[in-house]
From TrEMBL:
Keyword Membrane: yes
Keyword entries, A-Z: Membrane, Transmembrane, Transmembrane helix
Gene3D superfamilies for this protein: MFS general substrate transporter like domains (1.20.1250.20)
The organism's place on the tree of life at top rank: Bacteria
Organism field: Reyranella aquatilis
Membrane-spanning intervals of the chain: 45-63, 75-94, 100-122, 134-154, 166-184, 211-231, 243-262, 283-305, 359-381
A Pfam family reported for this protein in Swiss-Prot or TrEMBL: MFS_1
InterPro entries: MFS, MFS_trans_sf
Name of this protein: MFS transporter
Lineage: Bacteria, Pseudomonadati, Pseudomonadota, Alphaproteobacteria, Hyphomicrobiales
Length: 393
C-alpha cells in the first residue's frame, strides 16, 4: 500500500508539474514574443489569460463532483488532451481571435487539471489519509516554475515560442495523458482497504465554516497572486536594490519546498487548521521586517517568510476542508471553496499594480491586513471532534 501511494504521488506530482509549467506559468515567459509576432498587445494577452482563470473557477464545482463520483483518472486525462489542444491552438495563432480560443481551451484544461482536481482525486482515493499524498504532490509540483520557466525560455530562444508550445503539447499527449489515465489507481481498487469510501450526494450546505474558509483562501490567494506578479517591484519600493530584489525572489521557491518538507515531517503532527493559521502570519512578519529595515538581508528574510507561508497554504487548501468535513463530497467542496479565490486572484495583479503606484511599499500593509484577516477567519472555525468528521464522511 505504501509503494502504491508513493507511485501515485510521483505520477500526480509529475503531471501537476507539467500542467502548471505549460499553462499558468507560460505567459510570463512568452507573452512578449507572442505580442511581437502577432501584433496583439501584452495587455490583451494577459487579459485573456485572466479570463481563462475565471473560466477555470466556474468549472471547479462540476469538476469536483465528477471526481467524487468516478475518480480522477478520466478528468485528469481529459485535462491532458485539453492542454495539448490549447497549446496547439496557441502555436497556430496569428490573431486575437485564435489567441482567445486557445486560452479558452487552456482555461478549461486548468479547471480540470490543476491542484484542486488533483487534491480531489487523492481525497477520492485515500479519504482522511490523503494529507500526506497531498503534501507529496505539492512538494514535486512546487518546482513547476523552477523547471518550466527555464525550459520554456530555452525553447523560445532556440526553437521559437510556437515550436515550444507544440513540444509542451506533445509531452501532454505522450506523457501526461498515459500517466493520468493508466498509472493512477482506480477508486474502486483503492477504496477496498480504506475506512469509509467517499460518496457524492446532491446537496452540500453552504454553512458558516464554508464561508469562513472561502474568505480565508480568497484573501491569501489575492496576496499570493499579487506578490507573484510584482514581487521585485515591491521590494524595490521598500528600499531594496534591483539586484537584491531579484536575489530575494529566487528564494521563494526553495522556501515553499522547505516549508512543505516541514509539513510532511514535524508539522504533520498538528491539525491542518493550526498550520494554516501559522502560515497566514509569516507574510505580515516578513513585511514588517522589510518595511522596518529596507533591502539586503531584510529582503531575503521577507522572501523566505512569504514563500514558506505560501507553500503551506497551498497544502492547506486541500487538507483543511478534508480534516473538517471528511472525504464525502470532497471534490465538490473544493470546487466551491476554490471558485472565489480564483475569481479574485485573477484580478489581483492589476489591483496590486494600482496600489503599488499609489502607495509604494505601503502595498505591503494591505497585503498583511489581508493575510491577518485570513488568519482571523481560520481562528473563528471550530475544530470538529473525530466523531463529527466520521459522521460527515
Amino acid at each position: 500500500m505504501r509503494d502504491s501511494r508513493f507511485l501515485t504521488v510521483v505520477v500526480l506530482g509529475s503531471t501537476q508539474t507539467l500542467a502548471w509549467a505549460s499553462s499558468y506559468y507560460l505567459p510570463a515567459i512568452i507573452a512578449d514574443r507572442i505580442a511581437g509576432d502577432t501584433g496583439v498587445s501584452t495587455n490583451w494577452l494577459f487579459g485573456t489569460f485572466s479570463a481563462s482563470l475565471i473560466l477555470s473557477a466556474l468549472l471547479g464545482p462540476r469538476v469536483g463532483r465528477a471526481i467524487d463520483r468516478a475518480g480522477g483518472n478520466g478528468v485528469l486525462a481529459a485535462s491532458s488532451v485539453l492542454f495539448a489542444t490549447g497549446l496547439c491552438l496557441l502555436a497556430a495563432a496569428h490573431s486575437l481571435a485564435l489567441l482567445v480560443a486557445a486560452w479558452i481551451v487552456l482555461g478549461v484544461g486548468m479547471g480540470l487539471g490543476l491542484y484542486d482536481a488533483a487534491f480531489a482525486a487523492l481525497g477520492r482515493l485515500y479519504g482522511m489519509e490523503a494529507r500526506k499524498p497531498i503534501t507529496g504532490i505539492t512538494l514535486i509540483a512546487g518546482f513547476a516554475s523552477t523547471i518550466g520557466w527555464p525550459l520554456t525560455a530555452w525553447g523560445a530562444t532556440t526553437l521559437g515560442w510556437r515550436e515550444t508550445c507544440l513540444l509542451w503539447a506533445a509531452v501532454h499527449l505522450f506523457v501526461g495523458l498515459p500517466l493520468n489515465y493508466w498509472m493512477l489507481p482506480r477508486p474502486a481498487a483503492a477504496a477496498a482497504g480504506q475506512p469509509g469510501k467517499a460518496t457524492a450526494s446532491e446537496v452540500v450546505p453552504l454553512d458558516r465554516t464554508m464561508i469562513l474558509l472561502a474568505f480565508a483562501f480568497s484573501a491569501v490567494w489575492i496576496v499570493s497572486a499579487g506578490m507573484a506578479a510584482h514581487f521585485p517591484r515591491i521590494l524595490e519600493a521598500a528600499g531594496a536594490s534591483p539586484t537584491q530584489a531579484i536575489a530575494a525572489g529566487v528564494l521563494i521557491g526553495p522556501a515553499q519546498v522547505a516549508a512543505r518538507l516541514l509539513e510532511a515531517g514535524p508539522l504533520g503532527r498538528f491539525h491542518p487548521l493550526t498550520t494554516a493559521r501559522l502560515a497566514c502570519v509569516t507574510h505580515p512578519v516578513g513585511a514588517a521586517v522589510i518595511l522596518a529595515a529596507g533591502g539586503g538581508v531584510a529582503a531575503s528574510a521577507f522572501a523566505v517568510l512569504h514563500g514558506s507561508g505560501n507553500g503551506i497554504l497551498t497544502i492547506a487548501r486541500g487538507t483543511v476542508p478534508l480534516s473538517l468535513y471528511g472525504p464525502a463530497n470532497y471534490g465538490y467542496r473544493l470546487g466551491i471553496l476554490g471558485a472565489p479565490s480564483r475569481f479574485l486572484s485573477a484580478g489581483a495583479p492589476l489591483a496590486f499594480a494600482l496600489l503599488l503606484d499609489h502607495l509604494g511599499a505601503g502595498v505591503l500593509v494591505v497585503s498583511s491586513l489581508l493575510s491577518l484577516s485570513a488568519m482571523l477567519a481560520l481562528c473563528l472555525i471550530r475544530r470538529p471532534t473525530p466523531h463529527m468528521v466520521s459522521h460527515a464522511s
